[in-house]
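Tokens as discussed.
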């Protein structure tokens, strides 16, 4: 998932785009966990 985002926006700073993808995935997972905790 993160690799797809990194390759999609790989212009000059591939590593920067990769870490943006990692951060986006981490935020998504965190949001899902928070929703599950609140729903339980």
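Sequence:
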């Amino acid at each position: 998932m993160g690799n797809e985002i990194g390759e999609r926006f790989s212009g000059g700073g591939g590593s920067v785009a990769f870490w943006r993808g990692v951060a986006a995935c981490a935020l998504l997972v965190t949001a899902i966990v928070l929703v599950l905790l609140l729903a339980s």
